[in-house]
């Protein structure tokens, strides 16, 4: 089964694809390697898959790279992940100048070290005029934290007198999310066989299709993505209707 742009017309592709990049730790353990080795392999898969999504014409891709809960992991694992993020951004600034991908970061990035925050800002700035795929990298992201942040902003506006509570509606909440102005994800892929949302795009995924795949993220290939896209194209989406 091949679901490239020839087989699946762009109309059948998700407008927004979310990926929970899960299974790095188990991949490393199976090989008798330390967990950070799994993240290094996972970061390489991320590069391949992001480029492929851009090439086949997916307009928005959001990847879950680091959750608000991931700080609880052992210090050496957190440090290794920070190193990988830094490496990727340095590479993006240096080598991705001819790619038409606009990179954005969603989550509370103020918690990262100043040099990483600087790289985040520069990566966003350097790609802001790109017209191709929007790549959201979720870092220190949590769906509940995102909603709490939106509520806090609304409360401030009410306190300042610029908003009355009766005017708060779904559209106003949406505008205060990290993904404001972007379409909701149509499809969320979770490799590694787990069937949980894990606090990923809670508000935005109200009507997302889920595809859970029994493969660990570092082993995930463009063929696996094709399979998930093919399954998505065959789903009958009703959005609460009949
Ligand atoms: C979940 O797998 C994965 C993460 C917490 C980290 C994901 C990060 C990457 C793939 C690196 C991405 C890099 C860039 C540059 C964006 P897990 O470790 O929880 O796996 P397990 O469930 O098997 O333990």
Structure, described:
This protein is α/β, with parallel strands linked by helices and 242 residues long. The protein has a single domain, classed as Decaprenyl diphosphate synthase-like (Undecaprenyl pyrophosphate synthetase). 41% of the residues lie in helices and 15% in strands. It is built from 7 helices and 6 strands. The chain has helices spanning 24-30, 35-56, 75-95, 114-127, 143-160, 170-174, 222-234; strands at residues 16-20, 60-67, 102-106, 134-141, 187-191, 209-213. The protein has a 6-stranded parallel β-sheet with strand order 3-4-2-1-5-6, with helices on both faces. Strand 3 (102-106), helix 4 and strand 4 form a beta-alpha-beta unit. Helix 1 (24-30) crosses helix 2 (35-56), helix 2 runs parallel beside helix 3 and helix 3 (75-95) packs parallel to helix 4 (114-127). The protein starts with 15 loop residues before the first strand and ends in an 8-residue tail after the last helix. Residues 1-5 have low confidence and may be disordered. Residues 21-26, 39, 42-43, 46, 65, 70, 84-85, 88, 137 line the site of farnesyl diphosphate. Farnesyl diphosphate is lined by residues 21-26, 39, 42-43, 46, 65, 70, 84-85, 88, 137.
């Amino acid at each position: 089964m091949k679901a490239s742009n020839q087989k699946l017309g762009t109309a059948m592709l998700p407008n927004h694809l979310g990926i929970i990049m899960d299974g790095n730790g188990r991949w490393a353990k199976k090989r008798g390697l330390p967990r950070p080795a799994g993240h290094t392999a996972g970061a390489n898969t991320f590069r391949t898959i992001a480029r492929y999504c851009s090439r086949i014409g997916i307009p928005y891709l959001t990847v879950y790279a680091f959750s608000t809960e991931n700080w609880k992991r052992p210090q050496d694992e957190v440090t290794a992940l920070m190193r990988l993020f830094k490496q990727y951004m340095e590479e993006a600034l240096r080598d991705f100048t001819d790619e038409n991908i606009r990179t954005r970061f969603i989550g509370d990035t103020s918690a990262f070290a100043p040099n990483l925050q600087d790289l985040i800002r520069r990566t966003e700035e350097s790609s802001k005029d790109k017209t191709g795929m929007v790549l959201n990298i979720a870092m220190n992201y949590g769906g509940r934290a995102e909603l709490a942040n939106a509520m806090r902003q609304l409360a401030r506006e009410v306190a300042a007198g610029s908003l009355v509570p009766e005017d708060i509606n779904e559209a106003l909440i949406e505008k205060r999310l990290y993904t404001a102005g972007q379409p909701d994800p149509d499809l969320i892929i979770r490799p590694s066989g787990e069937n949980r949302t894990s606090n990923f795009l809670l508000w935005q995924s109200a009507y997302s299709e889920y595809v859970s795949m029994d493969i660990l993220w570092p082993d995930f290939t463009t063929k696996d993505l094709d399979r998930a896209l093919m399954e998505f194209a065959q789903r009958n989406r009703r959005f609460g209707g009949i």
